Amino acid sequence: MPITTCIFDAYGTLFDVAAAARQAAAEPRFSAIAEDWPALAEKWRTKQLQYTWLRAITDAHTDFWEVTADGLDWALEATGHDGDAELRQRLLDLYWELGAYPEVPTMLQRLKEAGLATGILSNGSPQMLDGAVKSAGLGNLLDAVLSVESVGIFKPDARVYDLVEMNFGCARDEILFVSSNGWDAAGAAGYGFDTVWVNRAGDPVDRLPWRPRTILSDLTRIPELATGA
Asked: C or N: which end of the chain has fewer Cβ atoms within 10 Å?
């Protein structure tokens, strides 16, 4: 079946999750992280994701904002900045204002011009996603923003991927699913989606039973893949 619907993970795929730490580090009052903000951002993101997996397998679901704050607290302690309450609050505030990667608006516009449906499928809470979409100015380029909160478990549980077919009314082989997380792309491939892993960091492929069909370094070629042009 031809692709009719393009679905994107949000954080790290459309939205730059390192932007909060990078922006804070550029502000004079937070010069304490001027040198080690990349390590802080990486530890924050890693722990944030680890907490989603642990909560999913232990049936201890909470919303993504809580695991985001918990991950930040761990990262701040790991990098020696846990005593700075002002820095903590600034980083959390900035997470609501994450910018999109540079190629995102044009890429989504090309998909819409080609007649394809577009959407987000994310671990993020509805409120977080609404803030990110508005901050990046992408609202008119997305047909739906789907959150795991409607099923109460994080990706890569199959109930999350079910949301796409339920909301768009299409078959799974009509869906191109795009994620910057190798484990998410693998999970979606195992579910039956045509998948793209956006591997911005050049990481090795995860050793899992499923592999994404395509690996890209950014999102520029997504319209080409979706339309076969």
From this structure: C
